[in-house]
Every structure is written in structure tokens, then in C-alpha cells.
Amino acid sequence: MADAAGAAPRRKPVKITKDNVSDLMAQVDAFVLDCDGVIWTPLATGMYPKAEEALDRLRGAGKKVMFVSNNSFHPPQEKFKLMGYPVSEDEVVVPSTVIARYLKKRGFEGQALVLASETFKRTLQDQGIDVVQRTAEDHPEKIIEFLRLVGKDAGKVKAVIVDFDLYLTGLDLVKAANYLREDPECLFFACATECNIPVGGKICLGPGYWTEIVERASGRKAQWVGKPAPMMVTEFLKDAHQLDMARSIFVGDSLEQDMGIANNCGMKKLLVLTGMTAIEDLETCDPNLIPDYYIDSVADLGRLLPKA
């Protein structure tokens, strides 16, 4: 029934309880989880209490468990290793691994200008991608030298990739914009979408800003890889792992990114309330981002499942 203003009532998500958890499990073969705000806090050295037990119980129930994160700077597999929890490389999906796979599968030739962390660059190099390296001369003080460096690799760079880069310079951005302007065939990927990244009470400027600068300067639009864009799911989970989207559920704490990627890929949506979203936010969010289910924490999901 419509409300007084004539608008249809907003759909309400179902809270997972002991009475309906078995129904959920019967509908789902794969649980795809975000990490920050779901398994741990961004600066944590350990998982949320009982999160490990929840993952074990999902696996014990015969469910495939995968992890998808926008964080190629400090990839989840590194954190899992530090925390002593065994996760294989192919269970974790981040933008760097997806781009490396995408380029290799398509026989990419040429150099890649990668505005990202050294970890990100190594992932590409491990797949045979030629990554442009910064050198000691990349700090010119005269405009003529600056312009020489901008044109140094012109014609060789066939892909520009933007992610989180602690050492980003103005020269990097100018190079990226010019390579894209001058070569319509040059690929352009943007990874993490965040603009303001809260870290330890401070704000870091994220790659969302840098991508916007390069887009505006070059007149080109980036192909987004990070959530909520579907590429990490369609290029890796669906293609490489043959997941059935209709029988997969995305577990996350962000409406825009986590519920967004689930919506864009036809997955079920499960919101946890340990991260950036409060239950009250569902009253005003985009109706397409309203989750199918919600639960206070991943630990609560584990407590509702029987021991393996």
C-alpha cells in the first residue's frame, strides 16, 4: 500500500535469526565477504571477536567463502597471514589481481603507468606486465625538464592504472592525463573509489580524487575495477570460479560499495552493522541498496550456525 504521499513503502530487510538462518543457508552456495568493517577494522591486528569461528562454520557447512576488497595497498591475504588464519590466494579478490588477470588474458603489450603501491605493481609484474618505474630524476625543478619527463614514455604506455599511492606526484598525474589524451587506445583503469579515507583519526586523500583529476584533464572516462563496479566479480568470481550469482550472497558493511556491487551483479545482499552503516541509514538510502538481510556482526552469523 502506498503512503500518504503516494510513494510505495520502502522494502525492509530481514534480520537473520535462529528461526530463519537455515532458510538462508538453503538458498546460498557461496558467501562473498568484504574485510574492512566486516572481518576486522582497517587498522586492526586481529579479527573481530568470533569472526574466525564464523568463517570456519560457513566452510564447515559446505559453503564457498571468498573475500573481495578494494584494498590493494595492504591486501587481505597479507592481513590474514599476519593473523594466522589460512586463506589461499585464489580466495581473495582485489583490484590488482583482477587487472593483472585481465591484461594477461588479453595479451597486453606495452608499458603500464601504475599510480599505486609497490605491492600493486609487483602483482602486475608477476604476471609479466612491464610497469613504468619512478627514477631519481622524477623531481624536476625547471619547466623544460618537467615537459621532457612528461613525454619520456609517450607511445610506450598502453595502460594507465590509478589506485592508492602514498608517493603520488603532480608529474604522475600530468603524465597519466597526457598518455590518455594522446592515445585513444591507451587503457584507463580506476581501482579504489574512496575519496576521503579515515585512518587513525586523520583523513587521507584517496584515489577517487586522483581519478577525477585524470578524467577531467584527459577527457577520458576510467573503467572502474573496485566496488561497486562489477568487474571484480564478473572477471574473477563468476569467470574464474564459476559462481552462480543467484546463489551467492555478498556480506558487507557499506551500502554504496558492498550492497552496490551485489546489486550490480545479481547477488543477494547481507549487511553487517560493525562498520560504516547504521540500521537507520536504510530509511534514506537508494532503495536499490537496501539489503535483503542484515545482522549485527559476522560473529552473530557464526553463533547461529551449528559447529562443523
The biggest sheet amounts to:
7 strands, parallel
Large-scale geometry: elongated
SSE-based structural type: alpha/beta
Estimate the mean pLDDT confidence. 91
CATH uppermost class of the largest domain: Alpha Beta
Low-pLDDT runs: none
From the structure above, extract its key features.
alpha/beta, Rossmann fold, seven-stranded parallel beta sheet, 14 strands, HAD_sf, hydrolase, metal ion binding, magnesium
Written account of the structure:
With 308 residues, the protein is of the alpha/beta class. It has two domains: 28-70 and 228-233 and 242-300, 3-Layer(aba) Sandwich (Rossmann fold); 96-224, HAD superfamily/HAD-like (Rossmann fold, 3-Layer(aba) Sandwich). It has eleven helices and 14 strands. It has helices spanning 21-27, 51-60, 76-82, 95-105, 118-126, 143-150, 170-182, 207-218, 231-240, 255-265, 298-304, and strands at 14-15, 30-33, 64-68, 92-93, 111-115, 130-131, 157-162, 187-190, 196-199, 202-205, 223-224, 248-252, 268-272, 293-295. The strands form three sheets. It has a seven-stranded parallel sheet with strand order 1-14-13-12-2-3-4, with helices on both faces. Strands 6-5-7-8-11 form a five-stranded parallel sheet, sandwiched between helices. A two-stranded antiparallel ribbon has the order 9-10. Helix 7 (170-182) crosses helix 8. The radius of gyration is 21 Å and the shape is elongated. The N and C termini lie far apart (44 Å). The relative contact order is 0.18. Pfam families: Hydrolase_6 (PF13344), Hydrolase_like (PF13242). One of its GO terms (molecular function) is phosphatase activity. Its cofactor is Mg(2+). Substrate binds at residues 69-71, 227. Keywords: Hydrolase, Magnesium, Metal-binding.
